[in-house]
Automatic annotation (TrEMBL):
<keyword id="KW-1133">Transmembrane helix</keyword>
<feature type="transmembrane region" description="Helical">
    <location>
        <begin position="38"/>
        <end position="56"/>
    </location>
</feature>
<keyword id="KW-0812">Transmembrane</keyword>
<feature type="transmembrane region" description="Helical">
    <location>
        <begin position="210"/>
        <end position="231"/>
    </location>
</feature>
<feature type="transmembrane region" description="Helical">
    <location>
        <begin position="120"/>
        <end position="139"/>
    </location>
</feature>
<dbReference type="InterPro" id="IPR000620">
    <property type="entry name" value="EamA_dom"/>
</dbReference>
<feature type="transmembrane region" description="Helical">
    <location>
        <begin position="7"/>
        <end position="26"/>
    </location>
</feature>
<feature type="transmembrane region" description="Helical">
    <location>
        <begin position="243"/>
        <end position="262"/>
    </location>
</feature>
<protein>
    <recommendedName>
        <fullName>EamA domain-containing protein</fullName>
    </recommendedName>
</protein>
<feature type="transmembrane region" description="Helical">
    <location>
        <begin position="68"/>
        <end position="89"/>
    </location>
</feature>
<feature type="domain" description="EamA">
    <location>
        <begin position="6"/>
        <end position="139"/>
    </location>
</feature>
<dbReference type="Pfam" id="PF00892">
    <property type="entry name" value="EamA"/>
</dbReference>
<feature type="transmembrane region" description="Helical">
    <location>
        <begin position="145"/>
        <end position="165"/>
    </location>
</feature>
<feature type="transmembrane region" description="Helical">
    <location>
        <begin position="177"/>
        <end position="198"/>
    </location>
</feature>
<keyword id="KW-0472">Membrane</keyword>
<feature type="transmembrane region" description="Helical">
    <location>
        <begin position="274"/>
        <end position="295"/>
    </location>
</feature>
<feature type="domain" description="EamA">
    <location>
        <begin position="150"/>
        <end position="285"/>
    </location>
</feature>
Length: 310
């Protein structure tokens, strides 16, 4: 298998595993756990996994004093994004929620235009309109009922929080912090939000059967560690832009599990709406410089020499 093929496969695995959030979260909801408890354990289990990755790569846990406050803010933004997304699963189909979340690169482009005067090109405007058309098609669910407004607001809060996080990292002192260390501390400080929301353990809901603990561990491993490692390696092989474009598999994976595992309906109208959103975001990523804001994994490791077959 050649290098590029490996890169595309790893990029696809990275995106697909990140789209597994609903697969592991919904059974926990059904068993009586709430989003706060699920995310508390997800962050709690993911932190030592990332810590071991830092040790394995010979990196330091040391922070500069000026990095602490920005990291706390970024951690709270990511935690808010996670919380809003996981709460939205209670109000709408997970496939629709994950597709709506995928508009965050468009929000990044808008933030860069409004706050940092970055040029907003005509193709970007057309892509935004295309995405809005797709959202319009998703306004009614598969059974014909109007989507829950609370669910829509929650997903938009999730997407906006994540977009602000991406811009904030790239426009602050954190832009020089290795992504592995950044992710470790973002999860560590984000955990504080869920610790407060579960009343420091007083209202924490715990999985009552052994196999549900497997779901909690899977949330920490698949959408976090495996997705992270595969993304890093994919960029080594094929670069940032193709890897970011393969991110379109994230909502598609959620749609697949929503339909196959959880019996959610998928009509032609919903399919067209999802494809319009995915196409719009993909074109924005492929046609501009926004990729540098979406993927920051080059700083993780020096570019390794890749042996090519003669």
């Amino acid at each position: 298998m050649n290098v590029k093929a490996k890169g595309y496969i790893l990029g696809a695995v990275a995106a697909a595993t990140y789209g597994m959030n609903p697969l592991f979260a919904l059974p926990l909801y059904k068993a009586g756990m709430n989003p706060d408890s699920v995310l508390f354990f997800r962050y709690l289990f993911a932190i030592p996994v990332l810590g071991m990755m830092i040790v394995a790569r010979g990196r330091s846990f040391k922070l500069k004093r000026k990095e602490v406050l920005p990291l706390i803010i970024m951690g709270l933004l990511v935690a808010l994004s996670s919380l809003a997304l996981f709460q939205s699963y209670n109000y709408m189909d997970v496939g629709i929620a994950s597709t709506l979340l995928f508009v965050y690169p468009i929000l990044v482009a808008l933030i860069m235009w409004i706050a940092f005067k970055e040029k907003l090109t005509l193709p970007t405007v057309l892509c935004i309109l295309l995405a809005l058309g797709g959202i319009g098609l998703l306004y009614k669910s598969g059974d014909g009922s109007t989507l829950n407004l609370t669910g829509i607001i929650l997903v938009m809060i999730s997407a906006l929080s994540y977009a602000i996080y991406i811009v904030g990292v790239n426009q602050s002192t954190l832009k020089n912090l290795a992504t592995l260390s950044l992710t470790f501390y973002v999860l560590l400080f984000g955990l504080v939000l869920f610790l407060v929301r579960v009343d420091f353990g007083q209202s924490l809901r715990v999985a009552e059967t052994w196999y549900l603990w497997g779901n909690l561990i899977a949330l920490a491993i698949f959408p976090t560690a495996i997705s992270f490692l595969c993304t890093t390696q994919a960029i080594q092989y094929i670069g940032s832009t193709p890897t970011a474009i393969l991110g379109a598999l994230e909502p598609l994976t959620a749609v697949f599990f929503g339909v196959v595992v959880f019996g959610e309906s998928l009509t032609l109208r919903l399919s067209c709406g999802m494809l319009m959103i995915i196409l719009a975001v993909t074109l924005i990523i492929a046609g501009g410089n926004i990729t540098i804001y979406l993927v920051r994994f080059r700083k993780l490791f020096p570019r390794l020499p890749i042996k090519r077959k003669k």
